């Protein structure tokens, strides 16, 4: 299909297939016409997917993502982990692929000792971020083919030599060592649970496990969504909430007044207030 666009899930095992069905239903609510495919070990108990690709020998782990992302049937793909929930239309993400080869959000992890052997190839510097591989937008082109080849190569050569989960550290290394143009998504497009998250604007994609996505979405997107806010949902917390960082106009002016008195003194503050009264913007100075 020329210039095709679509959504891809990779889910193996009943639990994760059911999660993908829930995610796809949330997607369909906002994008009813978008094609949705799933790569799985069996047919889901739902007709939500337009195309089902079955695999014979899945690993039932993150390795399946490394192996099968390249199997997307679309020219432009939005890949979503099974534990995502779509809150808004996300079709604009495809526009990123007019300028970039791939897009993903920063992960909550930073440095990760991927290898135990210090004599292995040069690693990405600490300043190069870890990208979360649960929401990934990518094109079907030679650069992405090279990226997936490199990711698979690093993952397979070092997965037995590293402790812990290595799909994202190996993804980070592959991004660093290839020529792909990567766009960085803001957290509103991959709002991770249960980590504290800074937000400004509507949350489009929630990523994590919860018994009530609708309630979390209501909390996240409570008006005004353009305010600066931090989502607090620590592990074990029964009542996640939003800490709003914006102050209203009079709170802001009161704070500015006290800061001016402390930093400039009474005389300079008085002069500033007179200037403001005459039309200058004292509160922004």
TrEMBL record:
SUPFAM superfamilies: Nucleotide-diphospho-sugar transferases (SSF53448)
Pfam family, one: Glyco_transf_8
Extent of the signal sequence: none
GO molecular function: glycosyltransferase activity
Name used for this protein in its record: Nucleotide-diphospho-sugar transferase domain-containing protein
Species per Swiss-Prot/TrEMBL record: Halobellus salinus
Lineage: Archaea, Methanobacteriati, Methanobacteriota, Stenosarchaea group, Halobacteria
């Amino acid at each position: 299909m020329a210039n095709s666009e679509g959504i891809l899930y990779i889910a193996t095992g009943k639990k994760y297939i059911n999660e993908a069905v829930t995610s796809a239903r949330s997607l369909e609510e906002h994008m009813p016409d978008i094609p949705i495919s799933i790569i799985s070990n069996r047919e889901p108990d739902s007709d939500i997917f337009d195309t089902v690709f079955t695999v014979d020998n899945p690993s039932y782990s993150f390795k399946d993502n490394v192996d099968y992302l390249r199997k997307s049937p679309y020219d432009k793909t939005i890949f979503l982990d099974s534990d995502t929930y779509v809150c808004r239309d996300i079709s604009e993400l495809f526009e990123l692929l007019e300028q970039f080869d791939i897009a993903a959000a920063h992960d909550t992890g930073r440095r990760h000792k991927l290898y135990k052997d210090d004599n292995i190839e040069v690693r990405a510097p600490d300043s190069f971020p870890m990208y979360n591989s649960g929401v990934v937008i990518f094109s079907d082109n030679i650069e992405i083919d090279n990226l997936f080849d490199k990711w698979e190569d690093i993952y397979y050569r070092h997965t037995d030599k590293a402790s812990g989960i290595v799909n994202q550290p190996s993804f980070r290394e592959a991004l660093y060592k290839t020529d792909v143009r990567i766009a960085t998504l803001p957290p509103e497009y991959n709002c991770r649970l249960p980590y504290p998250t800074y937000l400004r604007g509507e949350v489009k994609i929630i990523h994590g496990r919860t018994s009530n996505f609708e309630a979390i979405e209501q909390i996240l997107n409570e008006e005004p969504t353009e305010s600066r806010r931090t989502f607090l949902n620590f592990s074990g917390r029964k009542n996640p909430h939003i800490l709003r960082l914006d102050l209203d106009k009079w709170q802001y002016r009161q704070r500015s007044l006290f800061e001016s008195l402390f930093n400039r003194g009474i005389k300079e503050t008085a002069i500033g207030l007179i200037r403001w009264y005459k039309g200058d913007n004292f509160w922004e100075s």
